[in-house]
Specification:
25% of the residues lie in helices and 16% in strands. It is built from two helices and three strands.
Length: 73
Amino acid sequence: MSVVDKEYWYCVKHHRVESGDGLCASRHRLGPYPTEAEAARALETAEERNEAWESDPDWNDDVDAADDPRAEG
């Protein structure tokens, strides 16, 4: 892999950016990201995407929890 193709990951276990050899297990990583800066803000990116999905009318039917057969309770 050349320097141009370098990938960066964010480890949610250790709260750090990782790259190259010695990465944490994939279950602990977010990514890959093309830059270290993008990997460093991985949690913010995930939160922004979650908020976008939650407010997307194509994916949010605004079903009342009481009417949702999947709801616990």
